[in-house]
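Lab meeting, item 3. Inverse folding demo.
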């Protein structure tokens, strides 16, 4: 199974390399991909097109957006395959206050044990959490914030 994933990874890398030549907007960067929101429906695509444009320029813009969506999907797939092959997990930690280097190291070690992968951690501060932290890794969300606890308590009391 790993050879298939590696060939998929190579195929995706080649597609991304080609797309960088054609698409010069700078949204795809090797190694540090930051996904940007993409239009979800044809209605959203139409929002990007001014109503007074002629049909040719409208078709061109729709084609550009379609291409951007394909590149975005390939880039997301490439990053997932790369993380799988490299056995890494991208983790985003949002805390109420800035974490010290020691706290980050302890958290990274605990996450590495739980996820059984090397952890690439990014941190940010959100004072709205009141206290604690929220940890996101793909579909996994661990909400240890005071705001989250208050929200759960509010839900329990309203039922």
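The presenter then showed the designed sequence:
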């Amino acid at each position: 199974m790993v050879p298939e994933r590696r060939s998929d990874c190579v195929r995706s890398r080649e597609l991304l390399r080609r797309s960088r030549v054609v698409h010069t907007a700078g949204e795809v960067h090797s190694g540090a991909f930051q996904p940007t929101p993409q239009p979800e429906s044809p209605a959203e695509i139409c929002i990007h097109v001014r109503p007074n444009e002629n049909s040719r320029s409208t078709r061109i813009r729709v084609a550009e957006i379609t291409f951007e969506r394909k590149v975005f999907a390939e880039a997301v797939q490439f990053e997932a395959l790369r993380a799988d092959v490299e056995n890494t997990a991208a983790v985003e930690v949002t805390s109420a206050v800035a974490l010290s280097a020691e706290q980050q190291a302890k958290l990274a070690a605990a996450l590495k044990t739980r996820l059984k992968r090397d952890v690439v951690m990014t941190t940010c501060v959100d004072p709205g959490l009141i206290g604690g932290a929220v940890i996101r890794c793909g579909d996994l969300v661990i909400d240890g914030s005071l705001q989250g606890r208050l929200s759960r308590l509010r839900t329990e009391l309203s039922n």
